[in-house]
Write a structure and sequence with these properties.
The chain is 32% helix and 27% strand. The chain has 3 helices and 5 strands. The chain has a 5-stranded antiparallel beta sheet with strand order 1-2-3-5-4, covered by helices on one side. Strand 2 and strand 3 form a beta hairpin. Helix 1 runs antiparallel to helix 2 and helix 2 runs antiparallel to helix 3.
Length: 146
Amino acid sequence: MPVPQLTYEDQLDYTPTARSVSLARRRAARLVAEWGREEAAGDVALIVSELATNALLHGSLRGRLFRVRLVMSASMLRVEVSDPRGERVPRKRRGVVSTSGHGLVLVGGLADRWGTEPRTVGKTVWAEVELRAAVMRPCVPGRSGG
């Protein structure tokens, strides 16, 4: 199976604070829209928000950053959030009734697939969204749509 050609990539490290979650969410939405897939920006922003919140709540260590990485090809967008707590791996839950812990259920509903990967230090939680056939219209600096 041929590897899809990389179209866009971005990554940024964040301090483990609540403010970083909103910064990561807004950055993801802006980048995806600039990369010409405005229709996916809202879903991707929500996925980033949920995964970054989990990294903050369950994967953070004092003095250690978490990383948000976006990779987009012509047919797929992948969100990765890496944190330093490799021993705290999220699991897919079914039939659990509670007032919290629904972030990954939401991610599972928005993404076509998600999972985890170990790192030398920590883990990466990822989600992939298949991009439907559409004409990509990259943002041109200094021009507005319309």
